[in-house]
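input
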Amino acid sequence: MTRIVFALLMIMTASMAELTQVWATPEFAEKNIKIIDIRTPTEWKETGIIKGSYTIMFFDEQGRFYVPDFLKKIDKIVKKDEQFALICRVGSRTGMVSEFLSEKLGYKVINLKGGIMKMIHEGYKTVPYKE
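output
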């Protein structure tokens, strides 16, 4: 019986999960979708950030992460059933994090492929990061 309940929970979680892959473009920044930048403070200072985005570091400079702290911060910004986007430098980190958030935890995530560097290359003007 426990196995059946567990299997049903896994199926329900997977069906609620939603991962969308979208190229990071200047036009996407104009949409009314919350964007969470998971880079490091050093990276935010280096390139600037998307106007109106939220800065929540996932991996630190040494590649370490602490999921409970990240989730606590995410949950203050978005509701579990609310679609939002993740961005990093070139899309590698957000690929992993967005897959984890959607498939394992049921969040509705948009992975912005190509990251902030693609947007800057396409002419997007970032705003300075302020601590």
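quick obs: Residues 2-121 form a domain with the Oxidized Rhodanese; domain 1 fold (CATH 3.40.250.10).
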